[in-house]
């Protein structure tokens, strides 16, 4: 054999091996830092260190979802089965999910998206980021979007409706979908505060065209930061993939030419990391049991509460489907709400109300200055100061444009329900509520015997 022959032609390789070899890029120390984040004592961390250093990690973990047995892919499959939906896309946050869903639905310059006046600002801000125009809509006594006002707000420029399932309550999706289909409008459900809830047997988020979830540390299901989009629409899913991961790693052949018109366009990177996917995979395993505990405890409390002339229980569109982690009701005015909350807290009840002089809070439209004062991210003023937006850009906002929403949110009282309460705890809470209500209000004024009967809408 010619020692000078090229290896490609049968000669010997010039390099057989390298002497230098370092540890993997991500190794034991990163894992131990996570243990510290979890709050384990130094003694426990030292024990973990002693145990794990026996293992050779080889090349170390790869913490991006594009690998065999990806935790994020497992999470998406698990969520698809739980929600009985065709497509699930995990992203970095609930806001990223909204932004992606609006783009998937082709919301663009001058398109209007109807948003309830009671939601977190992100529902409306993500509309602006896509260059659409958010249109505030009233809520009703369910604390969710009012279908009557919703239909009044529809114009020829309306591209989508964004009903929000606030505080674990569920919207009247039958009415919303009937209106949307009549007018040919897409529905993008914001389920950030109601992961796992359902409406008449269907999981919320799967009833509209797209569903958006926040699965973060601030939510009942979630940890850290995370979001999720669900849809049965193949085209919507493809657009969502390209927008949330414009680098094309999701494609069978990453950099090949477009397989169909509109498959590729300039997108971003909202893909979820393996670390987040690992935590959320466990969180979703806990979801159903959490919901069952909350619903059981809420029903137990409400079944023993008498009806009072001066109090209106919050309307519940699906008592068996909502999450059940709060009990809501309305005194006659905001001053009364403050009085009853003070009395309930004195009895040991965790509750709250906005009251007569509420502070600024971006969950209420009248405080979202970014929308009311038309504050886009760039100096060109788009979408409001944009010739292409035409009539939509002329929309005017004011803090009093949804007076019913202001009234309801200022009077609304929310009572906390703990999923871990025992039957005895629930009976204690019901007794404390009854004690205060009997002292302040008059029993009667309704044909129903308990709040559990009274909260269900008449059309049920």
Structure overview:
- With 460 residues, the chain is α/β, with parallel strands linked by helices.
- It contains 14 helices and 13 strands.
- The chain has a seven-stranded mixed beta sheet, sandwiched between helices. Strands 10-11-13-12 form a four-stranded antiparallel beta sheet, with helices on both faces.
What tags apply to this protein structure?
single chain; 460 residues; alpha/beta; 7-stranded mixed beta sheet; 4-stranded antiparallel beta sheet; globular
Q: Distance between termini?
A: 88 Å
Structural class: alpha/beta
Describe the global form: globular
| Cα-based radius of gyration, to the nearest Å | 26 Å
Mean pLDDT: 94
Strand content: 5-15%
Strand count, sense and barrel status of the largest sheet are:
7 strands, mixed
Count of DSSP strands: 13
What is the gist of this entry?
The protein has 460 residues and is an alpha/beta fold. The chain contains 14 helices and 13 strands. Helices cover 35% and strands 11% of the residues.
SSE layout:
Blueprint (H helix, E strand, L loop, with lengths): L27 H11 L3 H11 L18 H13 L3 E5 L2 H11 L7 E5 L5 H8 L3 E5 L9 H6 L5 E4 L11 H11 L2 E5 L7 E2 L2 E2 L6 E5 L12 E5 L2 H11 L29 H29 L9 E2 L12 E5 L3 H13 L4 E3 L15 H4 L30 H9 L1 E4 L6 H18 L10 H4 L6
Parallel strand pairs: 2-3, 2-4, 4-5, 5-8
Antiparallel strand pairs: 1-9, 6-7, 8-9, 10-11, 11-13, 12-13
């Amino acid at each position: 054999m010619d020692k000078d022959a090229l290896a490609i032609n049968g000669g010997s390789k010039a390099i057989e091996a390298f002497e230098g070899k370092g540890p993997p890029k991500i190794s034991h120390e990163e894992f131990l830092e996570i243990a510290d984040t979890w709050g384990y004592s130094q003694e426990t961390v030292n024990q973990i260190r002693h145990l794990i250093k026996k293992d050779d990690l080889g090349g170390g973990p790869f913490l991006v979802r594009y690998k065999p047995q990806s935790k994020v892919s497992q999470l998406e499959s698990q969520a698809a089965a739980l929600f009985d939906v065709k497509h699930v896309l995990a992203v970095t946050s609930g806001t990223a999910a909204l932004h992606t869903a609006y783009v998937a639905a082709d919301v663009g310059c001058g398109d209007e998206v109807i948003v309830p006046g009671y939601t977190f600002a992100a529902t409306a801000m993500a509309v602006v980021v896509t260059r659409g125009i958010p249109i505030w809509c009233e809520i009703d006594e369910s604390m969710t979007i009012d279908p009557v006002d919703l239909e009044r707000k529809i114009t020829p420029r309306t591209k989508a409706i964004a009903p929000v399932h606030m505080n674990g309550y569920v919207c009247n999706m039958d009415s919303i979908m009937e209106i949307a289909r009549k007018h040919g409008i897409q529905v993008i459900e914001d389920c950030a505060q109601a992961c796992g809830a359902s409406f008449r047997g269907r999981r919320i988020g799967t009833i509209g065209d797209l569903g958006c979830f926040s699965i973060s540390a601030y939510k009942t299901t979630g940890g850290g930061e995370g979001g999720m989009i669900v849809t049965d629409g193949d085209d919507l899913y493809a657009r969502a993939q390209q927008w949330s991961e414009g680098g094309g790693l999701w494609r069978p052949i990453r950099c090949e030419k477009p397989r169909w018109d509109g498959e590729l366009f300039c997108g971003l990177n909202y893909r979820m990391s393996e670390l987040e996917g690992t935590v959320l995979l466990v969180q979703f395993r806990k979801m159903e049991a959490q919901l069952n505990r909350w619903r059981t405890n809420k029903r137990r409390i409400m079944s023993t509460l008498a009806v009072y002339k001066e109090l209106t229980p919050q309307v519940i569109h699906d008592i068996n489907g909502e999450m059940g982690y709060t009990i809501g009701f309305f005194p006659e005015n905001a001053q009364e709400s403050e009085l009853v909350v003070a009395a309930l807290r004195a009895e040991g009840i965790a509750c709250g109300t906005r009251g007569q002089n509420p502070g600024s809070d971006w969950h209420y439209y009248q405080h979202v200055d970014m929308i009311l004062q038309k504050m886009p991210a760039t100096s060109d003023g788009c979408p409001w100061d944009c010739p292409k937006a035409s009539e939509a850009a002329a929309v005017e906002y004011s803090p009093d444009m949804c007076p019913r929403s202001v009234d309801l949110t200022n009077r609304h009282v929310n009572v906390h329900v703990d999923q871990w309460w025992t039957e005895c705890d629930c009976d204690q809470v019901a007794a404390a509520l009854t004690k205060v209500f009997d002292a302040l209000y008059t029993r009667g004024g309704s044909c129903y015997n308990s709040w559990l009967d009274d909260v269900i809408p008449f059309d049920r």
